[in-house]
Amino acid sequence: MKGGTLYNRYSKVMEDLLKRLSDSQIDAIKEIGNIGAGNAATALSEILNTKVNMTVPSVKIIPIERVPSVVGGLEVIIGGVYMRMSGDAPSNLLFVVPVESALSLMERVLGYRPMDYTNLKEIEISALIEIGNIMCGSYINTLVKFTHLNLHPNVPYGTIDMAGAVLSEIIANLGEVADYALLIETVMTVVGESPISAYFFLMPDPDALTVILRSIGMM
Amino acid sequence: MQSRVIIGIAELAVDIAPTIIVTLGLGSCVGVTMYDPKNKLGGMIHIMLANSHGDTRGKPAKFADTGIPLLLSKMLERGADKNNLIVKIAGGARMFGNHVPALNVGGKNVKAVKEALSALGLKIRAEDTGGNRGRTIELFLETGDLAVKVIGEDVKII
């Protein structure tokens, strides 16, 4: 079966590659996450006009089905913005914030706090998506400068709902071709009256990881 | 004592009354439940993708085409009567709305689940699928009720 061959091939490529990653390759991946997220954090800091701290990225290699639980559980309510990065190294970018933080972010853009997150107006969810858009855009710009690869942003999408529901749809696409996901995770904290914590994830497609590593001479 | 058995993505469980089987935060994934009212025996599976494409290394419960026959065989092993099985399904949402061309996992999952059930000669008694909201579902093995919870909405029993 043709589909089966494709599935097994990608799955195996990803699994083999992930198993063989050396410490220095993992460090290089972290450094990419660090620079990308650093600029995204600066962009966020400019939008909010406050200081944004970020952690050193962690690199996680986990079974696809466990990805949605990394932000604290499947039923935790989150705001999620998703963007597909296309070009030489197709990947998924994800900006995830706990619901209270999502509302605080929206408040700073809109000038008021949406009352009911289960019934958001188009303009309210757009505010969250726009923040995610700016962050994903700045992350991608940095990756382009660092890797000299041809990478472009796409239309961002976003929603507020249970983490399992929001994240599983994104990873399901990756699940078509891989059993494991490589997750570059950065946690950002917005300093202020109501502290905001946010996660930023880069999930390269199986082949994209090889392309990225090669572009920086790590493969 | 009622105990709650919570299954994760790409997992399944079969149990008897008065247990409640739960799965949290179904988005594009589909929860499928089977219930034998005579034996008060039921099962649930949390399916993530439509087709295994013949892949046998991963978790069979991840895919509709391999997971549903597996759930049925686990039910039969526990003594369920296939002719009395009440099947319900929930999930298969498009979390980011209909305007995302690349993301149509939910619709494909629902279709594949229906095909897999029909191939086994199983009819769907009730379903709550589609839309753009996440769902948590609970199967009460005392009654066979399936509670569907969506944030900000009343619990629906199907």
Topology:
The complex is a heterodimer of chains A (219) and B (158).
Chain A: H1 2-20, H2 23-48, E1 52-54, E2 58-63, E3 77-87, E4 91-98, H3 99-110, H4 122-147, E5 151-152, E6 157-162, H5 163-175, E7 180-190, E8 196-204, H6 206-215
Helix pairs in contact in A: 2-4, 3-4
Chain B: E1 4-7, E2 12-16, E3 20-26, E4 30-36, E5 41-47, H1 64-77, E6 86-91, H2 105-119, E7 124-129, E8 135-140, E9 146-149, E10 156-157
Parallel strand pairs in B: 1-3, 6-7
Antiparallel strand pairs in B: 2-5, 3-8, 4-5, 4-6, 8-9, 9-10
Helix pairs in contact in B: 1-2
Question: What features would you describe in this structure?
Answer:
The complex is a heterodimer of chains A (219) and B (158). By secondary structure, chain A is an alpha+beta fold. Chain A has one domain (2-215): CheC-like (Chemotaxis protein chec, 3-Layer(aba) Sandwich). Chain A has helices spanning 2-20, 23-48, 99-110, 122-147, 163-175, 206-215, and strands at residues 52-54, 58-63, 77-87, 91-98, 151-152, 157-162, 180-190, 196-204. In chain A, strands 1, 2, 3, 4, 5, 6, 7 and 8 form an eight-stranded antiparallel beta sheet that branches. The longest helix of chain A has 26 residues, at 23-48. Chain A is globular. The two termini of chain A are 32 Å apart. Chain B is of the alpha+beta class and 158 residues long. Chain B has a single domain, classed as 60s Ribosomal Protein L30, Chain: A (2-Layer Sandwich). Helices cover 18% and strands 34% of the residues of chain B. Chain B is built from two helices and ten strands; from the N terminus they run E-E-E-E-E-H-E-H-E-E-E-E. Chain B has helices spanning 64-77, 105-119, and strands at residues 4-7, 12-16, 20-26, 30-36, 41-47, 86-91, 124-129, 135-140, 146-149, 156-157. A five-stranded mixed beta sheet of chain B has the order 1-3-8-9-10, with no helix packed on it. Chain B is globular. Classes of the chains: A alpha+beta (219), B alpha+beta (158). The A-B interface holds A 1, 3-4, 6-8, 11, 64-66, 68-69, 73-75, 77, 82, 84, 116-119, 157-159, 161-170, 172-173, 175-176, 179 and B 8-10, 24-29, 48-49, 51, 53-55, 57-59, 62, 93-97, 100, 102-103, 105-106, 132-136, 151-153.
